[in-house]
Amino acid sequence: MTYFEQQRDLLKLPPICSDVRQKQRLSIDTLPPEVKAPFPSDPIIPLRTKTTKEFQEDMDRAVHSGDWREVREFYLTTFDSFIEINAAFKANGSFNTIDDSGVNAKFVNAVYDALLSTPQDIQKSVLKGIINSLLREWKGTSTYVIYAHLLRQIAALSEADHHFLVHWLKKLSARRFRQLVERLLQFISTRLFPAEPDELPPLAKCSWWIPSATKVLGLFNAANSVSSPPIMPFTDFYNITLEHIDFMEEYRTWQNYGNSNRFSFCQFPFILSTVVKKAIIQKDSEQQMISQARQSLVSKVSRRQRVDMNLLFLNIKVRRAQLLSDSLDELMRKRCDLKKKLRVTFVGEAGLDMGGLTKEWFLLLVRQIFHTDYGMFTYMKDSRCHWFSSWKCDNYSEFQLVGTLMGLAVYNSIALDIHFPLYCYRKLLTPPTAPCDQNALVGMATATLDDLQQIMPELAHGLGELLNYDGNVEEDFYLTFQVFQEEMGVVKSYNLKPGGDKIPVTKQNRKEYVQLYVDFLLNKSIYKQFAAFYHGFHSVCASDALMLLRPEEVEMLVCGSPELDMSALQKAAQYEGYNKTDSTVRCFWDVVLAFPLELQKKLLHFATGSDRVPVGGMADLNFKIAKIEVSTDWLPISHTCFNQICLPPYRTRKELKHKLTIAISNAEGFGLE
Questions:
Q1: Residue pair 181/220 in contact by the 8 Å Cβ criterion
Q2: 553: closest CA among 141, 3, 33?
Q3: What CA–CA distance (Å, rounded) separates 151 from 214?
Q4: For the domain with range 566-666, which CATH number is right: 3.90.550.10, 3.20.20.140, 3.30.2410.10, 3.40.50.150?
Q5: Is residue 284 a contact partner of residue 251, using CB atoms and an 8 Å limit?
């Protein structure tokens, strides 16, 4: 099921409860006859011929002369009823197509924008007309109440009407689209946390406000999702106000009732920020960890065995010299303990794991696994990402280890320096929860040429040229439905369809060829590798919360955010041996804040092992600047396990900049060339 299909299904949600459904039905029934659906077969639509140009000329005359009579008459007539609104703004003819709503959007925008420049009495008259159309009564109702009833009517439209509306909304200008989205988000925030307690009706009396607004916002999100490119970033649909509600209660409601008649924001995950989703996953993980530990303790006690506190942890003991094989053995042997708190010990080394050893274990494993010499993953230089090697073997347990490692990182809130394309995370969510049937297909996400572009841009460009070629495809390209792939130095051939080696690629079948080739490269040729990787990840992250996530959000949870804010890092920084007023520290921040983005990324990588930021922002890094009493000839050093950078007491800004630039520019990356 595609993301848009999921959102479309969510839009079918009934009202919050049965009594609201009854009230909603009564509300619609009390509307004037002309707004009931279906409309009468032959409604009498008055003829209105005013154009955008004529209206703007009327406005200009009114502004200069102060005579608003003509403009007032237009507004009073237009907003007297929905029939009049249709007459003014809807073109003649039937518009039952997703391509054209038949609304003169330019005229609507002009009339709407101009309203703010009209005298107060005109604005009040328009407002009264809208109230009469929606509520059939005027009792000094606030604009919030009017807006809420409008949203309710939109939310109550049929699925077919919503389908049309989604496609019409995406034709709005980006500015107007954003305005409407921001207004809906503000409405939800204000209803949740009103500035004045008496500003709005009691929440118990208008419990349908937030579900209606969220459902309408879902229409805008769906319109944004089917637009290419999207009208606005998906992150702009986040409502950060929801970070201050009891989101675990929302999550439990969603778990218990699903997409039923019990409203939960989790039914509309696009509105929840990654911070909220991360917190839900963490708390869900903690509950699973506690449950696992409790079961182990109860089992021991029931058998009257001595209780070992190590039962509460996933204890990983590894030798540095055999890091990969030991880690694989430990995780396979203790796969029933994966949901306990992770604790790592390096054999023969003293030290209690307070988080630093765990992070070092992750960093060292990632470095070894993704090294090009190891062969599990291929580093794509053009796209600067890793992809699964297609070589075949009898045991894919090491791919399962990588998946488990990624799952443990999410589970234990550790960002990894992994460079997978976005398509990989889409595959991880296909499906978002692992099927019970071990033979069920997993990771087979629909693959497009755009997805291949993320990984193999040169090949994607070549296939694009094949699709657009005007000459004789069969004679000039001389291709068949057979492709060749190098595996461990041996070139092997594969048929994209039965008898493919004997089927020439022509102008008529080239689209099928490209689709099959892309699917082969991104799905079928690496199926066993990715299936092991998928099951490894989901063996740890088997949570309903994954269904709330987009692929981009999974990537952020695994790797952190690419958005750097060095000023925020400065505010959150801690110091050891220095204080923030020392000249060396002041020089450090002067230099770092003036660095170009590329050097800032290198600094972050140098200090933390990754050039990305945790989902919670720079404050979650616990970044520390420590003083080392050595000669200023020394370069800065770092302890990536503790997100710490150590600075000699450099005396000048120039000296610090020179030494710091050398240090961060020569730090080795993980598997990158």
A1: yes
A2: 3
A3: 9
A4: 3.30.2410.10
A5: yes
What's the rounded Cα separation, in Å, for the pair 331 and 671?
A: 23
Is 522 in contact with 447 (CB distance < 8 Å)?
A: yes
Cα separation, 321 vs 245, in Å, equals: 48
CB neighbour list of residue 637: distance below 8 Å, 6 or more residues apart: 628, 645, 646, 663
Segment 474-531, tens digit of pLDDT: 999 999 999 998 877 788 999 999 999 999 999 999 999 999 999 999 999 999 999 9
What are the tens digits of pLDDT across the range 402-454?
Answer: 999 999 988 877 888 889 999 999 999 999 988 988 889 999 999 999 999 99
Residue 62 tokens read as 């009114």
pLDDT above 70 coverage of the chain, percent: 89
Interval 151-162 mean pLDDT: 93
Kindly report the backbone phi and psi dihedral angles of residue 376, in degrees, each rounded to the nearest multiple of 5, phi listed first.
-70, -35
Distance CA 90, CA 76 (A): 17
Name the H helices within 484-643: 510-522, 527-540, 551-559, 566-572, 583-594, 597-608
pLDDT band at 237 (very low <50, low <70, confident <90, very high): very high
Mean pLDDT of 568-597: 95
- Nearest C-alpha neighbor of 588 from the set 661, 639, 643, 641: 661
- Domain boundaries, given as residue ranges, for the chain: 52-270, 566-666
String of b and e for 260-296 (b: at least 16 CB within 10 Å)? eeebbbbbbbbbbbbbbbbbbbbebbeebbeebbeeb
Average pLDDT over residues 175-182: 95
Residue carrying structure tokens 């154009």: 51
Radius of gyration of the chain (CA): 31
Residues with Cβ within 8 Å of residue 506, at least 6 apart in sequence: 473, 474
CA atoms within a 13 Å half-sphere pointing along the CA-CB vector of 199: 11
Catalytic machinery residues: 641
